[in-house]
Write a structure and sequence with these properties.
heterotrimer, A alpha/beta (390), B mainly alpha (287), C mainly alpha (350), A: Rossmann fold, 9-stranded mixed β-sheet, 6-stranded mixed β-sheet, 12 helices, globular, C: mainly alpha, 16 helices
């Protein structure tokens, strides 16, 4: 009798146990707030970054460390208060655990206090002004800094017979960063600045500035303009016959932006720049990246802005794997510092001290290869720190 | 120095071509068409597509760059603009801004957000070295010549044709003109069309010098308005003089005093408007 | 607007002379029921929409900005494309004060308003001449020059990077600004309401009537002996000062200010708000601001890349379907309803 009751109890227990729903640790989706310029003069940057982010998620799946990645895209409308508002709302209303994007310096500055107050990691995928990571202990950068992109060409120019340079930059933070770095590094290496000009950002006509440069008779014209404006400068360079007058065109690679380089025509051939990324970088990772990018976005070639987005996502994925899915501010930062991986551009590392990016820089020349224009790399400086001092 | 002067004049010529359509429509219909830049953008993008994608020669693109925006202008004028002639100027602003937003988004969607580049025919590229210190860009020379021809044509049409005299009558007094049997509506439609067409043409010509991207209508709106305000409405000579003055001062300012380069053009504008509020050759303020 | 019948002047008694006018103004000054409902909405929003307080604070600030433009545009008839000059000046004033340790909010607002008012007064004389287009361009030119100046004076304004290190002290020593925007919301709404009361008072006063007269027919007002220029200068100065107040408010609630507060885009945006809501209707600016910001917010959420297209279409539709802006639309709706009711009453032999 007792045996039967025990058997029944045992059977009931087993059946009951089998039917009991196993408490799965259901993880909430991880929302990434992506704030970028999608309209306005910097819209081409936004489009490049978004394309790269989408490509990364498409290729690596949207689940990492058990969490589903949800990207919430917001247009910063070129306004600081809009960016700050979106950052605030993404964090408080949408419960975004990571903020990313940021194409313009003042907008990044505006959003930084939100990251600090909410202890949310903020990943800079686009902006290049040097001081940005200092604005919040939660900022990590995966794009580049202007000193990093400028110092190499300054050194190269000084070592290759260019004695006198006229600098021409756009009158905003990245431009001024670039100009300052170039002047310091070039003169320290024995060069001479024969003239300088700062161009208003919303400038229709580069003619007078390029003419002024020509009249100063330098060995080279150093240019920094927002990505996309390179075409206008190149036209003036060609029209005014600076090449014929023996004036070379140098600068960070923004002026030979991969996305529009091909349509610049022969005038661009021979331009020497230093940059962190060229679509012609001959690594297997990059070849795959460019092919996939062009397939997913017909008519677009990936440029340096896009790899900032790609590597921003790579950072998120790698860190989440290390923290087991937690994007909590301090944990994320601890895991991100010192993290190193192979990007389409080459090897990159997140500097543990400054939370900024350490990456290889390349000296490239514009050449026509197989009928198209590319920034062909011919020299490499490994592991250039964010302040450009190598 | 002479090169700078030459560049400034060429810049002014392009500005004139861009803005003359706006000046005409403002003077005749009293309608502030802030969407004027959108017609210029249309001409520009059509040229880019025809030249880059279909390989049509630059000179064949130009007539299309005129006709397509002109046609668009006539259609829009009959359908929308004409209903707003008597409306509050603020409603006109709202409508045209709406048109601008829609056109910017459409351009961004169809053509992408990056700057467009075209290669003009080989013989138009480069410079002519006149003497030391003075080089003339060939393309700019071409622009100047083109502008001269257009100005002459406009002047002849306005002064020597029946259409022109009817137009001038409608400007001076629309009601009496109607009373005399002039079909003012048709006049307005054609004029608006021509003004938009000229904008489109200028947009095509300007790709080489300015930049063409989806925010073109807003970026250059200020410049159009400056030319029209300083030049006065209803004449051809006023905007021409204004555009040339502004072009020269802009270029010279950026060359000689780069630190305050952008400042110069605004300061000049404000100064001229304080000196002559109705514009250089404009009529006394009616509104 | 009913007709004002002048009663026969009694012998020597000055106060009966303008009795009808005074009664007209008094009638206008009384609060309509829809106005009371309107001002209860922000209070309701605080409880019903706690997640949208940051957005609604911006609406309050921009509503205030639009209100200041409406005074100049809708009531004085001065069309301005450079109103952001005052907004930006107020914003930078408050920002600089806070940056250098004077973070007390109320005084920041006052200083912002003062600075902008002075600039407004100084430039008001430039705006009196010429046609609408001239005014448009002169105001725009001044605004653009101010922005260029701010860009060049990096040592003062931070240039294109913006002003940082703005620490705003707690309001009245008690309320600190929080991450959820609660303090900012109550602060901005309170300021908006107080300024609104001020403007309402000004509009419904003899001065306000004079302004409206000047807008309708300047020459006739001159013939009546009104010092037109003086009235317009006062209006322009007040409008500028209030725009500066709005700018200071924005800086304090966002703890940041950069060049875009002085941009042509800002001037155009506020002009659009006033037009959208309906110029000269007192509520038009606030309603227009609310409509534009909310529309941009919702559409941008749906299509971050192409929301401008839908906003553009909405503007075009609005112009053809509703002249006089949203307030005009509402007024027409109310009128249509009351007409229907009246017709029904009449047909019932009432």
């Amino acid at each position: 009798m007792i045996a039967r009751i025990s058997l029944i109890v045992l059977v009931v227990a087993v059946v009951f146990g089998a039917c009991m729903p196993t408490t799965v640790l259901a993880q909430t989706p991880l929302k990434v707030g992506l704030i970028l310029p999608m309209t306005g003069p910097m819209a081409s940057t936004g489009k490049q970054v978004v394309a790269a982010v989408k490509l990364y998620v498409a290729e690596h799946g949207d689940v990492v460390a058990g969490r589903k990645i949800e990207v919430l895209l917001r247009d910063d409308a070129n306004a600081a208060e809009t960016t700050k508002r979106y950052a605030q709302e993404l964090v408080t209303n949408d419960h975004a655990e990571i903020l990313a994007g940021f194409g313009l310096t003042p907008l990044a500055f505006a959003a930084a206090p939100i990251a600090t107050a909410a202890k949310v990691p903020m990943i800079i995928m686009s902006a290049g002004t040097f001081v940005i990571p200092q604005k919040s202990p939660y900022i990590i950068r995966t794009s580049f800094t202007l000193p990093q992109n400028t110092a190499p060409i300054a050194v190269w120019a000084a070592k290759h017979g260019i004695k006198k340079v006229f600098t021409l930059v756009a009158d905003y933070a990245p431009g001024i960063d670039s100009e300052t770095t170039f002047k310091a590094v070039f003169t320290a290496n024995g060069g001479q600045i024969v003239g300088e000009a700062r161009v208003p950002v919303q400038n229709p006509d580069y003619a007078p500035f390029v003419q002024k440069a020509k009249d100063s008779k330098p060995d080279a014209l150093f240019i920094f303009v927002p990505s996309g404006e390179g075409a206008a400068v190149m036209k003036q360079y060609a029209e005014r016959g600076l090449a014929k007058a023996g004036i070379k065109l140098i600068g960070p690679g923004d002026v030979t932006d991969d996305d529009i380089l091909d349509s610049m025509g022969d005038a661009a051939i021979g331009t020497i720049t230093s940059m962190d990324y060229s679509a012609a970088h001959p690594s297997p990772e990059n070849k795959a990246y460019v092919a996939a990018f062009e397939k997913a976005n017909p008519g677009m070639r990936p440029n340096f802005m896009s790899v900032g987005g790609w590597d921003g996502m790579a950072l998120i994925y790698e860190v989440l794997k290390k923290t087991n899915g937690s994007a909590e501010g301090d944990k994320f930062l601890a895991a991100a510092k010192g993290l190193s991986w192979m990007s389409p551009r080459g090897k990159i590392t997140i500097d543990p001290n400054t939370r900024d990016i350490i990456q290889d820089e390349y000296i490239r020349e514009v050449k026509r290869v197989n009928g198209h224009l590319w920034n062909v790399e011919f020299d490499r400086i490994p592991a250039v720190p964010p302040d450009g001092k190598f | 120095m002479l090169t700078v002067l030459f560049d400034g004049i060429a810049s002014g010529a392009l500005l004139f071509l861009l803005a003359i359509g706006l000046s005409i429509t403002l003077g005749i219909m009293n309608f502030t068409n802030l969407a004027h830049g959108a017609f210029a953008m249309l001409g520009g993008y059509l040229t880019v597509v025809m030249l880059n994608r279909w390989g049509i020669s630059f000179f064949y693109c130009l007539p299309v760059a005129f006709l397509a925006p002109a046609l668009a202008g006539v259609i829009l004028e009959r359908a929308f603009y004409s209903r707003l002639y008597d409306a509050d100027p603020l409603d006109q602003v709202l409508f045209t801004i709406g048109l601008v937003f829609a056109s910017i988004a459409t351009a961004s969607y169809l053509m992408g957000a990056q700057h467009q580049i075209i290669q003009v025919p080989q013989f138009l590229q480069g410079q002519i070295h006149v003497f030391s210190g003075f080089d003339m860009g060939i393309y700019r020379l071409f622009l100047l010549a083109f502008c001269g021809v257009i100005t002459l044509l406009l002047h002849l049409i306005l002064m020597r044709t029946r259409f022109g005299s009817r137009l001038r009558a409608a400007v001076d007094n629309g009601r009496i003109a109607r009373g005399l049997g002039i079909n003012v509506n048709r006049l307005f439609a054609v004029t608006f069309g021509v003004g938009s067409g000229l904008a489109g043409l200028a947009g095509a010509l300007g790709i080489e010098i300015l930049n063409l991207d989806p925010v073109f209508p807003v970026k250059f709106l200020v410049y159009f308005l400056i030319v029209v305000a300083v030049g006065g409405t209803g004449t051809v000579g006023g905007p021409l003089a204004a555009a040339l003055i502004l072009g020269i001062f802009d270029v010279a300012g950026k060359y000689y005093v780069s630190q305050i380069g952008a400042f110069v053009i605004y300061a000049v504008m404000v100064a001229m408007l304080i000196w002559r509020p109705q514009g250089l050759f404009g009529k006394k303020a009616v509104r | 607007m009913g007709s004002i019948a002048k009663p026969a002047p009694a012998a020597g008694s000055g106060d009966i002379k303008f009795k009808a006018e005074a009664e007209y103004l008094r009638a206008k000054a009384s609060w309509r029921p829809y106005e009371l409902v309107f001002w209860l909405l922000p209070i309701a929003a605080y409880f019903l929409l706690p997640k949208q307080l940051v957005l609604l604070s911006r609406v309050a600030v921009m509503g205030l900005f639009a209100l200041s433009l409406d005074l100049i545009l809708g009531y004085a008839g001065i069309i301005s494309l450079g109103h952001a000059a005052f907004f930006g000046l107020g914003g930078y004033t408050a920002g600089l004060l806070a940056q250098h340790g004077f973070g007390e909010p109320i005084s920041g607002l006052v200083m912002g308003a003062l600075a902008a008012g002075i600039l407004g007064f100084a430039t008001s004389f430039l705006v009196m001449r010429g046609s609408d287009l001239t005014r448009l361009m002169v105001t725009l030119g001044i605004c653009l020059m101010l922005m260029e100046a701010a860009n060049k004076m990096r040592w003062l304004t931070g240039g294109a990077d913006g002003l940082q290190g703005i620490a705003v002290s707690p309001i009245l020593g008690v309320w600190t600004f929080d991450l959820f925007g609660r303090t900012a919301y109550i602060y901005s709404m309170a300021v908006l309401f107080l300024v609104f009361l001020l403007i309402r008072r000004v509009i419904r006063s003899p001065y306000g009537l004079a302004l409206r007269g000047i807008k309708e027919n300047q020459r006739r007002m001159q013939a009546l002996g009104t010092p037109v220029t003086r009235r317009l200068v006062v209006a322009y100065t007040i409008g500028a000062a209030l725009a500066g107040l709005a700018g200071a408010l924005l800086t304090q609630t966002t703890q940041f200010v950069s060049l875009d507060v002085l941009s042509f885009d800002k001037s155009a945006e506020v002009l659009l708000m006033v037009t959208l809501g309906g110029a000269g209707t007192l509520y038009g600016g606030i309603i227009g601001g609310l409509a534009l910001i909310v529309a941009q917010y919702l559409l941008s959420g749906i299509s971050p890349e192409y929301w401008q297209f839908w906003v553009g279409i909405a503007f075009i539709a609005l112009v053809f379907l509703a002249r006089g802006g949203l307030v005009g639309l509402a007024q027409k709706g109310v009128a249509a309803l009351s007409r229907g009711r009246g017709a029904r009453a009449a047909s019932q032999g009432g």
